[in-house]
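Consider the tokenized backbone below.
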């Protein structure tokens, strides 16, 4: 499976089947899945802690540390997919709606090249 051929629905199905095979539905309520997203995102962040930009790039060029980054990123994606699958959230629609809202908050003509928050401009 590759990004250019996989669909979100297919990835949700993979996650669902994995969890059903282990009888994990009873553990996957919104709170615990949200905790999982946060925990795994923190583990990803920890890899880069106290590293400058060039050290971060080096981490991604090294096979061992790149594999660790990929594993943590996959863990985040797993929990996002599982949360959406368990709660009937269409991720493509949610992303599209959020990008639309962000476009209104951050119009390109006012925020191009800026890292300011919408209420700081």
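A designed sequence for it:
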């Amino acid at each position: 499976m590759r990004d250019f051929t996989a669909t979100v629905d297919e990835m949700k199905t993979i996650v669902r089947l994995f969890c059903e095979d282990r009888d994990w539905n009873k553990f996957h309520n919104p709170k615990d899945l949200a905790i999982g997203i946060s925990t795994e995102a923190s583990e990803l962040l920890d890899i880069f802690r106290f590293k400058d930009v060039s050290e971060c790039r080096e981490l991604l060029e090294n096979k061992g540390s790149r594999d660790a980054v990929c594993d943590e990123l996959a863990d985040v994606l797993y929990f996002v997919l599982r949360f959406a699958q368990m709660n009937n959230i269409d991720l493509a629609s949610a992303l599209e709606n959020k990008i639309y809202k962000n476009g209104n908050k951050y119009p390109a003509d006012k925020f191009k090249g800026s890292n300011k928050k919408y209420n700081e401009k």
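The chain is about 70% helix and 0% strand.
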